[in-house]
Design a protein that fits this description.
Layout (H helix, E strand, L loop, with lengths): L3 E10 L3 E8 L16 E3 L7 H13 L8 E8 L5 E8 L11 E5 L7 E5 L1 E8 H7 L5 H14 L1
Parallel strand pairs: 1-5
Antiparallel strand pairs: 1-2, 1-3, 2-8, 4-5, 6-7
């Protein structure tokens, strides 16, 4: 069965639409940029937890602050290349990237060294315009940007 993740696409309007993206931490992602960024998200079991609740929990774990209050709009689901299904919700809000304190994970690094190291789940956070976001984000998640842009355009 495919793994399922839920996340929040936080956006703000500063003369134009910007979205908050996160870069995964750890040694596997250190030299990857284009296509490596994501919305703040994490895995959950849909039979045990509501997707939006999971998205809020993951937002807080990855960014160190609770999801802002506001009207949440569904952006649907996408399937990433490895088969993981990601559900997302759009939320207008603001957050200072410098204030982010991500949770951490521990892995054996280097592999087979017997040495355990701790890494942040998110090592970088940025506000970016939609054009740049489309080059940075996981290719499957571009659909979320398109859906957010359509929602925004419909309100104008």
């Amino acid at each position: 069965m495919a793994k399922t993740s839920a996340g929040i696409l936080l956006y703000r309007i500063v003369g134009h639409l910007e979205v908050l993206l996160v870069h995964p931490g750890g040694p596997f992602w250190v030299n990857k940029d284009s296509g490596a960024w994501s919305i703040p998200k994490g895995e959950f079991d849909p039979s045990l937890e509501d997707g939006l609740a999971a998205a809020g929990r993951e937002f807080e774990e990855e960014l160190g602050s609770p999801m802002p209050d506001g009207d949440v709009r569904t952006l649907g689901e996408v399937e990433q290349r490895a088969g993981k299904v990601v559900a997302a919700w759009a939320l207008e809000g603001d957050l200072e990237p410098e204030s982010v304190v991500s949770n951490t994970f521990t892995i054996e690094w280097p592999p087979r060294s017997g040495r355990m190291q701790e890494f942040p789940e998110v090592d970088r956070v940025r506000w970016v315009g939609l054009a740049e976001a489309r080059t940075l984000i996981n290719p499957a998640q571009v659909a979320f940007l398109d859906r957010l842009e359509a929602l925004y355009d419909a309100q104008q």
